[in-house]
Write a structure and sequence with these properties.
The chain has 251 residues and is an alpha+beta fold. Helices cover 22% and strands 19% of the residues. Strand 2 and strand 3 form a beta hairpin. Helix 1 packs across helix 2. The N and C termini lie far apart (170 Å).
Length: 251
């Protein structure tokens, strides 16, 4: 058995190029059958990472996953020759793979221009292989005659992986603080009373002084009026003496 064996597969490039046939390399891998330990089955491991850009190059880690295509929607019978779609999951820098524009265009064509969610789109280069049995043990050559089946499947199925960073909204810049509206006259008066309570207390503690008494120039006349003698029994009011005359009489 050859150490390296290749099979024809269909590549769906992520950069928008049309799908085309490529050579998919496989290497032998032996594993024990758990039901019959004495029997050892020989299988081949595919290497789709050769056709995947930006994929991690770690020999101790498998940086791709696969999705089986055994039937289409509304089918009640599986394919005699099923397919497997290989897609990348681990990139070199840890960033998400670019959206597969070829598959996205196929989905928009089938869905009449309606584009799917960003986090559900297929990403990276996709490699579709064909198998000779429904146990996926023997790979066989695929051709562009298998393209309509794979096109129908990719157009109606979203990617198995979810890229949450694709939906992360960009941070919005902070809005500058707005100035408060000017206070109304009633609010201004109420605020003035609350801000200056000591002024009103000072006014209550120190009442305004009483006005000074005014002097009158008619005080001598008033004194003289109080000294007017009573009327005489004859009904006549005696003649009022001037002040200086009263003083002379007292002397």
């Amino acid at each position: 058995m050859d150490l390296m064996q290749s099979f024809d597969a269909i590549l769906f490039p992520a950069d928008g190029r049309p799908p085309h046939v490529v050579s998919l390399m496989t290497s032998p891998a032996s594993f024990s059958n758990p039901h019959t330990p004495a029997q050892t089955n020989a299988a081949r491991v595919p290497h789709p990472e050769v056709h995947m850009e930006y994929i991690a190059e770690d020999p101790n880690m498998r940086a791709w996953h696969y999705q089986t295509v055994e039937a289409l929607d509304m089918m009640n019978k599986k394919f005699a020759n099923p397919y497997i779609v290989y897609y990348p999951v681990v990139s070199r820098d840890g960033m998400p793979f670019p959206v597969n524009r070829t598959v996205r265009d196929i989905q928009e064509e089938v869905n009449k221009g309606r584009r799917g969610r960003e986090d559900q789109l297929w990403r990276g280069n996709l490699v579709a292989a064909k198998f000779a049995d429904d146990h996926f043990e023997q790979m066989m050559d695929a051709s562009m005659a298998d393209f309509p089946i794979l096109k129908n499947y990719l157009a109606t199925h979203v990617s198995p992986i979810r890229v949450t960073s694709a939906l992360t909204p960009a941070p919005t810049p902070p809005t500058p603080p707005s100035l408060p509206p000017p206070p109304t006259p009633h609010q201004h008066q109420h605020q003035h009373q609350h801000q200056h309570p000591h002024q009103h207390q000072h006014q209550h503690q120190h009442p305004a002084p009483a006005p000074a008494p005014t002097t009158s120039t008619s005080a001598p006349a008033t004194s003289a009026a109080t000294t007017i003698p009573p009327p005489s029994p004859h009904g006549r009011i005696p003649r009022r003496r001037p002040p200086h005359a009263i003083c002379r009489a007292r002397r």
